[in-house]
Amino acid sequence: MPEAKAQDNFTDPDSRIMKRAGGRFDASYNAQTAVDDTAHIIVAAELSNNAADTHQLVPMLQAVKTNIGEFPRQGLADAGYRSEDNFKRLAGLPIELVVALGREGKRHAQIDPNTHAHTVAMATKLQSDQGRAAYRRRSGSPSRPTAGSRACWDSANSACEDCTACKPSSSSCAWR
Hints:
Largest sheet: 3 strands, mixed
Number of domains: 1
Distance between the termini: 56 Å
Helix content: 10-25%
Strand order of the largest sheet: 6-5-7
Number of helices: 4
């Protein structure tokens, strides 16, 4: 016997109940997009039925590589993608990763360098002028889906710096 609060969606059984703005819950999907922050075009998009973004960073960067032929030089993401495992898995790739560790300007819990060395390195990067400047570009990125397609708009915040896939001059590059 299912619990009294258990719900099924008979019209879309793959969707999941997710919290939305204003505290409502709806059957939804979690949309992820990767946007070229120079051309302002979406270079990869994925949907999942998991509300958490943590496990979506690596697949999104792989989708970018699949779509444009290489990894972006830089990947910017909000704190929902923060994970020591993500940082370890992406450490050997040719991507400068900039992932928020929490709200900008707020104090964060102490990070144990023995168990979270990659997270400590990210914190150090985010405290630098270059790291702060890179992350601030993310907030101006047009990576949020339109209101009509908004399943979990605040989690679709990845952005990719201009690619080098076509390597032509900037005046003829389709991605710029």
